[in-house]
Amino acid sequence: MLDDIYEECEMDMEGAIEHMQSQFKTLRTGKVTTQVLDGIKVEYYGAPTPLAQVATVLATDATTITVSPWEKPLLGDIESAIAKANIGVNPTNDGEQVKLFFPPMTVEQRQENVKKLKKMGEDAKVAIRNDRRKANDAVKKLEKEKEITEDDSKRAQENIQKITDKMTAKVDDVVKQKEQAIMTV
Which residues are within 8 A (CB) of 171 and not within 5 positions of it... i.e. 6 or more apart? Predict the structure, then answer.
């Protein structure tokens, strides 16, 4: 019964960390990654479709991404979708593919990305604390319904706090590693 609460709490907290890490992919580090284009959708036969499903997206070097559409008529649509996404560069259309040339990041851009990174880390910690509250509420409900003793309830809440501390420390470690990647020139 309590083990189920611990397990669910830990899974929820892991989910918050995974979500945070998926958000990190939108942040630029020293070299570009194709993930900066992940949120971009292109009109394809009347439906908004993820860019990766209508074109080949490659990081050809540390500062360039090329987008080669599978159908040539999509070239203009892809170019305008990237321009609307406001990712910090203007797309260049050469008639065959769209190229994105990312200039080297300035110190200010790196610091701005670190601020965004820390905000994402704080959001993950808030989600973890919400998961802790939910688990503690479940334990208190069991105690109220006389399914566990008061001592069991206290021990369970201490265990939940240990899980919370472990996950919060994990968030801090992940944020610190990503911060180093962003600040490395």
Answer: 17, 20, 121, 124, 125, 128
Instruction: Give the separation between CA 130 and CA 128, rounded to whole angstroms.
Output: 5
Q: Are 83 and 89 in contact (CB under 8 A)?
A: no
Architecture of domain 34-101: 2-Layer Sandwich (3.30)
Task: Return d(Cα 168, Cα 121) in angstroms, integer.
Answer: 9
pTM over 0.70: yes
pLDDT tens sequence across 21-38: 988 877 777 778 888 888
Q: Are strands 98-101 and 64-69 parallel, antiparallel or unpaired?
A: antiparallel
What is the tally of helices (H) and strands (E) in the chain?
4, 6
